[in-house]
Amino acid sequence: MIKKHIPNALTCSNLLCGCIGVVEAFHNNILLSCVLIGLALVFDFFDGFAARMLGVSSPIGRDLDSLADMVTFGLLPSIIVYQLLMRSIADLSGIWMAYPAFLIAIFSAIRLAKFNNDPRQTDGFIGLPTPANGILIASIPFILESAGPELTEFILNTKHLLIFTCLMSFLLVAELPLIALKFKSFSWQPNRARYLLIIGTIVLLLAFKILAVPIIIMYYLLLSLLFGVIKKN
Which of 2, 36, 187, 225 has the fewest CB atoms in 10 Å of its CB? Predict the structure, then answer.
């Protein structure tokens, strides 16, 4: 049946975006790489959605999804941060300082392996999902395009980029229960956190455009922590 191949075809489209993005990033076409991460995010959302709606979820599809995410939302964001670090390093003798960027790829791999083997993550996430981390990193080059000299200098600072890399690597594997956009129904009560996340995201994007992405990730973390506390109580 054709329908059982639809989710995997979407997952492979995600992987293709990641592969092309890696090539473009090494050719210093960073903005195109970031656009491809955004496109891959759409494929990544709809492959799981299609699998659930068509009732064709499988262990192979789950593993394929993680492998695709490793390239698109693990390796590619690492290369983007690597290129940003290279821009920030004044002395080429310090090129080794760009290599910690690949901590993001390493911790993304750990994150995805944990996800595939953690029964707690069927309806939510434990740790920042790799697509969220990937889209945050993809927003940085676009922010730099419209940033003033002070913000550009702040972002393209080797120490700041290394701190950012370590922080995001930690959040990928942190024991933080986070919201997942996995709808079993569309009623309000069981999905209120998801709807608030979607509504907040739309409002922030309309208000701040690309600058909204870091704010959205912070909002996502805070909203997840808030609903985590409500659930416990």
Answer: 2
